[in-house]
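Lab meeting tomorrow. Please check the following:
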Amino acid sequence: MSLSTKEQILDHIEKLGVTLPGGQAGIAFEYFLERPNQDVHHDDVVPWIEGMCHKRLGTVCKDPDRAIRKLHDMGLLLKISKGIYRFEPDSVSANIIDEFDEDMKRKVKMRDGWKCVVCGLGEKDGVELQVDHILPRSKGGQATIDNAQTLCGSHNYRKNKLGQLEFGADMFRRLRRNAKASSDSYDDAEAVIRFCDEVLALYKRHGYDKPQPAN
């Protein structure tokens, strides 16, 4: 199906059940909507978003990059390369992947013992549990049980911010720090530290060892 007009594009997106975002992300989408099937560089779109936010909303756009990422995560934009995005109306339906339904979320949480697979906390500890795509939807991840994991809100945020592999490296760095800090009272601390060092060396070998700012 070839979508040639703005009206056809918006109608197609609506039929897919996608609710277009408002605010800064909505303003960002307007830029791409006017430039279908074009490679758009970050340096071109960001000043436009900032200017329109000030004009329309009367506010400073604090994070235009986040607005663009939101459109990408929704499946509305393709990331061509670093800093370059493309809106392909004919490809939107292929990029938007169904979210987990409630029955699947329950099965995933049950499989994971009703606790975060990272920290082990659950609802009984007053923690909100969320079902996360291991491979993100924006990278082709499907809404399947095999691609699902139970995370607390904090670890889901960190994973989404870092990416699955970087999130893993960050987790082992924190595990190593905790083991070192409690080495006086933790008999296995040295073994844990050595194990983390070996794992982190593997991450480094493959380029996933970039330290992240602590929260």
Remarks:
- The chain has a mean pLDDT of 83.
- The chain has three domains: 6-95, 98-162, 163-215.
- DSSP finds nine helices and five strands in the chain.
- The first strand starts at residue 39 and ends at 41.
